[in-house]
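Reviewer 2 asked us to include a model.

Predict the structure of this chain.
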Amino acid sequence: QVQLVESGGGLVQAGGSLRLSCAASGRTLDNYAMGWFRQAPGKEREIVAAISRSGGRTYYPDSVKGRFTISRDNARNTVYLQMNSLKPEDTAVYYCAGRVSFVIITSERQFDSWGQGTQVTVSS
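Predicted model (C-alpha cells):
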C-alpha cells in the first residue's frame, strides 16, 4: 500500500481559502484513484472530492461543488484539494485516501489507503 500524508490545514476565516496537499510515498500514484474525505466532531466521515487516476474524471457532492477543486500531479506523487469560499460548516479533519483502480471511487469503504488527517477550522 501507499503511504499518504496530508498537509496544508489550519485556521481560516469564513470566505477564505486553503489548499490541502496529500503526498504519497512507497508507491507512485499513477494507478491510484484518490479521494478527499472529512469528519467533523460527532459526525460521520463524508466524501468531499474524488478523482480518477488520470485526473480526467472528478466528483463533488453538492455541499462543496463550485467551491472545492481536486487535482493531482502524478509526477510529484501528490493530490491537492483547493478549498475556496470556506464556511464554518467546512470545519473538520480532512483525510486523503487512495486505491488502485481503473475507475473513479466515491465510496469510503472502497479505499484501502488513508492518511492521518489534517485539521481545517473555519471561523465565522
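The two ends are 39 Å apart (CA to CA). The chain has a mean pLDDT of 97. We have added this to the supplementary material.
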